[in-house]
User: Which sequence fits this backbone?
């Protein structure tokens, strides 16, 4: 999918917030795409992890907030172990989730339809999901 | 050899995944090892918090590590892969990040200070290091010859590298264990592929596709069954498998066992001690292979007799 974007006003508050949440490693990304090629969830993502890293480096916070990538990330850490620049991409995904969650906006609504009745899930599925995808 | 070691069970092993705990405890008893539950433990938090300023979520795992220390242990054993990951990562943080460690220690005023003194081990590591193949082989009553079963590690035992139970894409700890029990173990290339983890709560399509890849890889390479270490992997692989079979997207069932189930079956353990919770496909395979005769296996939901 081609993503077109316009420069946004002053990216510095975004950079500051991201550095606070996940450090400044994301500036090191050289767009090799190893993260995207190792990510098992790319086909469900509106932008691959590589594209996300690109947008982060451009400071496009508003554009990023509209994408689903970090909400379908399963924190499997394939990207993290495969990045030749040593960037913890999963941590960048967590920072992007956190930006929304800290505005008291949930992604996962408890009432939303799921594959199994709540009682059938192991607690670790529910605790994990609500910790990552809700505030 | 008699050994006692501190043990953290976690929430899943006390509820939906009781069979993982009971079969592991009973098998360890056979091997002369007592897993002593740490007192007053709490949920490990399931997932490790990655944000730099999110310290509050580390309190839960660190508190458990302090409980183990108070029990006088230098090793804490876990069976659930998610607990292992969360505890091991929190422990590593307490060892290597003085700033966060001091902040957490100050915050948990009523607890003794903790600096990462305890070693967190997954049961597979403990078995290989402290028990050994020879001892395990000596307890095998029902060799699992004829059974082709492969390890499925998932993400939590293999990533990140700093806490991985072994180097990347080897899967030798569980391979060796299964081989000690007489099983045929083929290399399973999708052994560390993500099962979709907590995403199965969010979106069924994600879970379906993730598990389809894993199960199809298994049938393609001729693996009859998978041995897993995590209640969430087990749930995703089993629940989605039913859906995939029904929709014709998977043609042969791939029974999923907890690794400890397989150990207990081959040790010929008494089902009164072990409520083996297995589904029909898993019981079928054992019956077809003739392993059931020495072990009474109870179906999930049935009462132990
Ligand atoms: S693998 Fe690392 S360097 Fe390569 S695109 Fe992804 S984040 Fe950037
Ligand atoms: S952690 Fe998320 S972004 Fe990284 S490979 Fe796994 S699913 Fe993809």
Assistant:
């Amino acid at each position: 999918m081609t993503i077109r974007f316009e420069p946004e006003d002053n990216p510095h508050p975004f950079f500051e917030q991201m550095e606070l949440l996940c450090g400044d490693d994301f500036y090191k990304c050289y767009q090799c795409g190893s993260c995207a090629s190792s990510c098992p969830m790319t086909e469900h993502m509106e932008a691959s992890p590589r594209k996300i890293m690109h947008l982060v480096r451009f400071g496009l916070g508003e554009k990023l907030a509209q994408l689903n990538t970090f909400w379908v990330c399963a924190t499997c850490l394939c990207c993290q172990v495969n990045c030749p620049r040593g960037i913890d991409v999963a941590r960048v995904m967590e920072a992007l989730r956190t930006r929304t969650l800290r505005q008291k906006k949930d992604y996962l609504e408890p009432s939303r339809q799921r594959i199994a009745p709540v009682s059938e899930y192991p607690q670790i599925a529910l605790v994990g999901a609500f910790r990552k995808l809700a505030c | 050899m008699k050994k006692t070691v501190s043990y953290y069970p976690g929430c899943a092993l006390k509820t939906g995944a009781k069979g993982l705990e009971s079969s592991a405890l009973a098998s360890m008893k056979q091997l002369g090892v007592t897993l002593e539950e740490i007192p007053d433990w709490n949920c490990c938090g399931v997932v490790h918090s990655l944000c730099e300023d999110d310290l509050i979520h580390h309190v839960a795992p660190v508190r458990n590590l302090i409980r183990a220390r108070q029990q006088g242990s230098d090793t804490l054993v876990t069976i659930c892969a998610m607990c292992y990951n969360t505890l091991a990562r929190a422990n590593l943080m307490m060892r290597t990040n003085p700033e966060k460690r001091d902040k957490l220690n100050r915050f948990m005023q009523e607890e003794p200070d903790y600096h990462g003194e305890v070693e967190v081990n997954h049961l597979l590591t403990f078995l290989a290091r402290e028990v050994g193949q020879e001892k395990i082989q000596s307890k095998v009553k029902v060799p699992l010859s004829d059974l082709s079963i492969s390890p499925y590690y998932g993400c939590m035992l293999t990533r990140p590298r700093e806490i991985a139970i072994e180097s990347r894409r080897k899967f030798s700890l569980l391979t060796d264990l299964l081989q000690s029990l007489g099983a045929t173990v083929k290399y399973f290339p999708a052994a560390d592929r993500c099962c979709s983890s907590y995403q199965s709560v969010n979106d069924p399509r994600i879970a379906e596709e993730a598990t389809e890849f894993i199960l199809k890889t298994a049938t393609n390479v001729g693996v009859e069954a998978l041995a897993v270490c995590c209640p969430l992997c087990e749930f995703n692989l089993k629940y989605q498998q039913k859906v995939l079979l029904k929709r014709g997207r998977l043609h042969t069932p791939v029974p999923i066992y907890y690794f400890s189930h397989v150990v207990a079956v081959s040790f010929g353990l008494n089902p009164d001690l072990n409520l083996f919770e297995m589904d029909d496909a898993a019981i079928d395979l054992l019956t077809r292979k003739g392993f059931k005769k020495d072990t009474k296996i109870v179906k999930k939901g049935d009462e132990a007799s």
The two ends of chain A are 30 Å apart (CA to CA).
